[in-house]
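Entry 14. Structure prediction run on the chain below.
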Amino acid sequence: MRAWLHFLVILSALGACGDDGMSQAAGDDPGTGTRTLRVTASACATPNLINARTPTDFQTDFSARITLAQQTVTSGLVTVSSVTGKVPLTYRDGSWHGSAASYDEVYTLDVTAGEHVITGARIDGPDIQTITAPTQGSIVDTSRPVMLRWDRKRTADHTVVQIDPSYTAKIPDSGSFVIEPGALRADRSLPRQNTVHLIRTNTLEPAGAVTGSSFDVELDNEVDIEAQPLQTRW
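Output returned:
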C-alpha cells in the first residue's frame, strides 16, 4: 500500500513539473471593479534576437492610460502580474509604464486609485509565433509575390504584417500571407535589407472598468531579408 501511495505522489509531482508555467491561471478573466476608471493598457513583447522562440528571448513593456471622470489618474497603485512576478508601474508623461525581461503570455492587471479599483483583469496573450518563410537572410525578388509563413498554436484576435518603414497590412492569423509585389523596398544596384515584422495581439475588456476600456497583449517577431537589386532582374 505504501509503495502505491509513493507512486501516486511521484506521478502527481511529475504532472506539476510538466507545466510550462504559462498554463497556470491561463484563459481570460475580465475581473471585477468599481466600473469608474477608464483604462487603455497593453503588454508589448519585442524580440531580443531574430525569429525569437522562447519566453526569455523577448522583453515585454507595459503601459496604461487611466482616467477618472475624464481626468488622468496620476497616483495610486498599478501592477501587472504574471508567473514570474508582479511589476509595479510608474507614472510619467501621461501614462503608467513598466517592463519585464521575458514574455509570460498570461498577464493580470490591477489598479487602485483611492476607492476606485480594477481587480484581476487577466488576459491570455498570443503564443509565440515563429516565422518559417522567408528565412533569415533570404534574397527575394520584390517584383514578385513573397510568401510569408508562420507557426502558431492558437489564433490571435488581431494580426499585422509590418515591413519597415512604410508597409502595414491587417491579415487573418492563418499561418500564411502573400506579400504583394512592391511592398518590399529595393535599391537599383545593391541588395537592400527589409525587416518583416509579424505582430499578433489578443484583447480583453476589463469588466471592472468603464465600458470601452481595453487590456491588450501584443507579440512581435521578425526576420531580415534582402531585396534583390533592381538592375539584376530580367
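The longest strand covers residues 214-227.
Filed with the rest of this week's runs.
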